[in-house]
Amino acid sequence: MSDLACSNEDIIGALDGLGPVTTGELAGMVDCSDGALEDSLDALVDAGVVETRVVDGCSRLWWRIPDDKEGVDTFRAELAERLRPLTDPEEIQSVAGKLLAERLDVDRALYLEVFPDEETLQVRDGYARDGLTEVETKHRFSDFGDHVGDRLRRGEPLVVDDVTAIEDQSDEQEAAYLAADIHAYLTVPLLKSGRLVGLFTLQQTTPREWSDTAVELTRETVESTWAAVERARAERELAETNSILRRLTDASQVFIDADVATLRERVVELAREVVDCPSTTLWRYDKDEGELRAVDSETDPEHATPDRPSDQRSERAWAAFVSGEPAVESELDAPAGVPEDPSAEPIRSRLVVPLGRHGVLEVASTEPGRFDSGTLDLVETLAATIETAWDRASGEAALQRRNRELQELDELNTLIRRIDQSLVEADTVSAIDKTVCERLAESERYLFAWVGGYDPEPPAVSPRAWAGVDSSAIEALTATTDPTADDRLGPGTPATDPFVTAVQSSEMQTVGDIATDVRATPWREAALERGARSCHCIPLVYEESAFGVLVVYAATPHRGDRDEQVLAELGGTIAHAIHAAEAAATRQGGSVVELTLRVTDAKTPLCRLSRETGCVIESDGVVVGDGAEPTVVFTASGVTREALMTAAESSLSVDSLRALAAGEGGTLCKAEIADDSLVTRLQSDSATVQSLTIDAGVATAVVTLPETAAVREYLDGLTATGLELELIARRTRERSPDTTQRLQTAFREQLTPRQQEVFALAYRCGFFESPRVQTGAELADALGIAQSTFNYHLRGAQRQLCAAVFDPAGAAQTDHHWQE
């Protein structure tokens, strides 16, 4: 071999069309020594004509860098052609890296994106020869020294032929390069609008001298790669936006025509489809409770762990609802513990948007920072669509409900008018009861109805007219004894009777759902068998007088109270009609007014005696004897004779009490009382006490007044005496014939006080029964007189009775009332 310097033309001519060759192989081609050849090759490398790299630690490979424009253009054309049809950013980065690596014969070519902080960079994709060590995908510039980041941010490429020769490099940094099989590298930055956005790095497993051509081709490749990636991402975002808009449009079409129930069922499902998030929850505002509740939730179990309820979630949802502003949580902590499904990821970000007065919509993702401004705009648009649809559906539902209620009210008013017309034609109480029940049962609104009268002792309602059901069903429908009351409410505690309560309170009682209302227990089965699901118990009250109760049954559970006022007014109309009918009968002279009164906290002797002993006293009347103190005959039950006598002895108002006889109904007693009795107060020239029952100090009296009596003046007069009165019932009934009343009055006037006392006591104590309940001797002893005196007065009274019956003319000589 010649020791002369080799000709550059010979060297370039030998390398043309060849790949990398060793120094020895090339020396044989040009007939030149290795030393002289390397000197010439180094000069060509410096000139950018030849490329070289070291292999196996000492050998060097050489190859010709194409200096023709055609080769570079071919690479550029191929790169553009290969990248143009690609739509996946990672595939674009991989193809670009492989083409550049093949062109420049490098071991690794990687495309990296720089985060907005210009400090963090992420390896996206690229090319690497088989067998190379995998590099970490995420780095920080500070890991390589401050000078690296500073130069790249200024747009300066980093050209390192040998990492072991880098000045101011720590041993750790050098070791990191070598551990990653990096002995030389070329990194070209890409700046956009003055900001570092990406870079391409070429790495060699051996030291290498990088040519200017390599730098230029890398710069063009990173520019083309970035442009292709941005285009692909823009196209993908556009496609995703169009897809989102289609999904949003489809959802809007569903919402436009949906009713409230459909919205409640579909909102979560459609929202998850539109936003494309693994978890969605609908929180609805309950205006009755004043609370926000999660009413529906949907989570994709294959991709996300269900978002569990928590106070933090509730508070965040409430804050968004109250403020009307969306709330974003971008970095949620991963829940502690092992997940039920290891393949499912925990929720890491959450977005809550308000739905106006309806509640909030919550969407969640497994990706931290998932909800950027674009997603927020999308969810807010969706929320606005849902809110508008819900407002429309709620408004339509409210309008339909109001129209339905108005129609039902109109039907009810039509029914009321028909009943009013029938009331005009009815002239008796029985006719009124019958026509009201028939009109209600004939209507489509109600199934059947009945009218009942009220009996205060014991409190009960008895049906007096009905329609829509037969008489055999009325007994079961008006049952007031609950067979299960002892089990539910305790022994001896009856269930509340809505029929009785309506009369006592003068307020309508509504059993909204017969199937569940405890008040319907006694008659629930009978009502349900006949199709009834609700009923109204309407008191018939006019001017503080109760005339009974009207009960109507409907086929559906009762909702709302719009018709209750109308039904209450109907009750007042019926009561007024009954009052008018009774008043008309009274004016015709064939009736008397009967009042049922309850007297509480009376201080009269018998009331005190009943209150102290807890017994029930039924008074048979007052018999005025020869003395100044009245004699009272009554029956006491629920107390022993001894207890009654002991209580009477300690009473200052009871001078003497004698037990006359004992029977199944109680003990018959006679007492002389010092104070006015309740019967004395209730009875007057115009009022007659028909019955008086005192139970534990509370008295119930039935009093009759003549047709011309002023009831209000009579009651006011009783109240003025200190009595606490309650008018339980008022009704008109046929009076006893006038002849009978005149005969009774005339007969009493013919008797002396002692004869009245003896005769009445003998009658009430069973003296005239067969066999006799009390003998003459026993009655004489009870009166404190001799038996002969008793017999004398008894025969005198009997003689007057016989004279009134058999010798009316003789009787007329002594009493003008006996004129017939």
UniProtKB/TrEMBL annotation:
Keywords: Transcription, Transcription regulation
InterPro entries (alphabetical): BAT_GAF/HTH-assoc (IPR031803), GAF (IPR003018), GAF-like_dom_sf (IPR029016), HTH_bacterioopsin (IPR007050), WH-like_DNA-bd_sf (IPR036388)
Keyword Transcription regulation (UniProt): yes
Domain (GAF): residue spans on this chain: 88-239, 259-400, 407-588
Superkingdom of origin: Archaea
Keyword Transcription on entry: yes
Residues passing through the membrane, by range: none
Alphabetized Pfam families for the sequence: BAT, GAF, GAF_2, HTH_10
Bias-annotated ranges (Basic and acidic residues): 293-316
Region (Disordered), start-end ranges: 293-317
Matching PANTHER family: DIMETHYL SULFOXIDE REDUCTASE TRANSCRIPTIONAL ACTIVATOR (PTHR34236:SF1)
Protein name: GAF domain-containing protein
Organism: Haloarcula salinisoli
